[in-house]
Amino acid sequence: MLVRTDPFRELDRLTQQMFGNSSGTWSRPTAMPMDAYRSGDEFVVEFDLPGVSPEAIDLDVERNVLTVKAERRPSVTDDKVEMHVSERPLGAFSRQLFLGDTLDADNITASYDAGVLTLRIPVAERARPRKIQVAGGDTEQKRLNA
C-alpha cells in the first residue's frame, strides 16, 4: 500500500496563490501531481512532469521512503529575449511516498514518456494472495495410519 503525507502541501499552495512566488524565497520544493493505482500484482504511480528532461529526474529509496525529485529549467535562456508571459512553474519539484512493507522496493522500475514519469512497484511475494490447501479428515487419518 502507498501512503503519501505532506501536511504543509495545501498551506503552501494557498500561500503561493495569495502572495505569489515571484521572490524566489520558497525553501520547499513544489509538489508534482500524481496518480497511483494497483494493477494486478503491482502499484503504478504516474507523475506529471511536462518539460522536464529525464536527466533532471532523481529517484531515491531509503528504507521504505521513495523520493522523487525533478527540476524544470527555463526553456529560454537568451538575455535578448523579453518574456511576456511566464505561467509554467520552474525550479525544483519533490514528492515523497511512504511504501508499505507489502511492496518490493528493491524491484521498482521507472519510465518517462510524454512528460509522465511512471513507476511500477511490485507487490512483495509474501503479500500476494495465495491458495491454501485444506486437508480433509480422511486424508489426515490415512496419513496417520501409514
TrEMBL record:
Signal peptide: none annotated. CDD domains: ACD_sHsps-like. Belongs to the small heat shock protein (HSP20) family. InterPro entries: A-crystallin/Hsp20_dom, HSP20-like_chaperone, Small_HSP. It comes from Amycolatopsis arida. This is HSP20 family protein. Residues 25-137 form the SHSP domain.
